[in-house]
């Protein structure tokens, strides 16, 4: 492989579209597919070829990158592409798929003689668009140099967690990180909801914690999205965060750990989605605190 690759990108949502753009900007030949083609079409302005089927996207590719909704979606799409996959192709699997799905995806890779990389990413829309994601990756050291141009195009840094993508070490680390993100986001929403209910200006709370150990940039960033009504376009959508929260809860159950905050976070996110906020930023879980839409 040379440094300039042909990459098939399957899934062009918030993250996948940004990754496809950055791959094209890095000089790679990029073919992208999305279940709803209209959502992928804007990528043509960045030099990405949009295809009608997954098989068209991956045929002859040096690497395939999957960024879909969940593990079952990835497996379904890769099965659609199966006949066009070339043995030896590097598969960079970046969907947050959960610990159970990774084994099935790795088995598919073995059956089709693909080089499997478990490679979820940390980051939201803004770092994705800037090519500044943090890639968490597990995969064979002998093939890392070949896949490095893909990882370098989409991320600022790659943290290697192991030699075997099938053991899910990168996915496990991603779930741990996301458990913190979901808990922190839930806390932001409840602080703002309680402030409103008690007639407290949120800025008073921010002033109280300013510069101390309880202050954090994430709190202020997510709170600003709610207070300034900037929940769209989503940095990380409510519906996707709810899915991740359920994966976290399930992973805990499998290992004998009860994750009350993650379960409550999933409930809040699902309630917000049911209220009509599914496609808004996950900070919109704030609305789950109210039976009726808050005023003002």
> Stretches where pLDDT falls below 50 for ≥5 residues?
none
Task: Provide the succession of SSEs.
Answer: EHEHEHEHEHEEHEHEHHHHH
The shape, in one word, is: globular
* Highest-level CATH class of the largest domain: Alpha Beta
Span between termini: 57 Å
Write the CATH fold name of the largest domain. Answer: Rossmann fold
Integer-rounded radius of gyration: 20 Å
How are the strands ordered across the major sheet? Answer: 3-2-1-4-5-6
CATH superfamily of the largest domain: NAD(P)-binding Rossmann-like Domain
Q: Which structural class best describes the helix and strand composition?
A: alpha/beta
Indicate the CATH architecture of the largest domain: 3-Layer(aba) Sandwich
Helix tally equals 12
The percentage helix is: 40-55%
Q: What kind of sheet is the major sheet?
A: 6 strands, parallel
Task: Please report the total strand number as a whole number.
Answer: 9
What share of residues are in beta strands? 5-15%
Write down the domain tally: 2
Mean pLDDT equals: 97
